[in-house]
Fold each of these.
Amino acid sequence: MDDYVVVKALENGVNIIGLTRGPDTKFHHTEKLDKGEVYIAQFTEITSAIKINGAAEIYTKHGKVISDAR
């Protein structure tokens, strides 16, 4: 899997949660970013989804999305 996601925090306390694949979706990894920090994540055989809570810029191969959940 070569899909990457870049998350840039626009505020302190942005949470990133990795969710597993399979019949039972579970949390398997969490990160907390402060304003200006950047996190690069990759979708893998284990990670099927990423949940982002907080104001952030999210960059994917499909473009840029801004989460304004403040």
Amino acid sequence: MAQKQSFSRWLRSTSEHHLLVVAQAKVGRRNGLVPPEPKGADIFWQKVYAPAFYALPYSLRAKVADRLPGSHQQTWHKPEQAKGPAV
């Protein structure tokens, strides 16, 4: 059963995905490849959001990224101590 994620988690994961797609397309173009054109809602994320995000100063981008929930805020539990012999 899939767990419903919060809006901020959805926003972060969608943002990361499309920023990655844009970066890969940029590298592809540098190497003579033609990436596929985005369709539907992907047009907004790749043609509007990503360029606007990259136009922001790095310090502001870092603050925005730090505010959204994600793995960088994950708290890790201490590993359980082994009980009994290893063999």
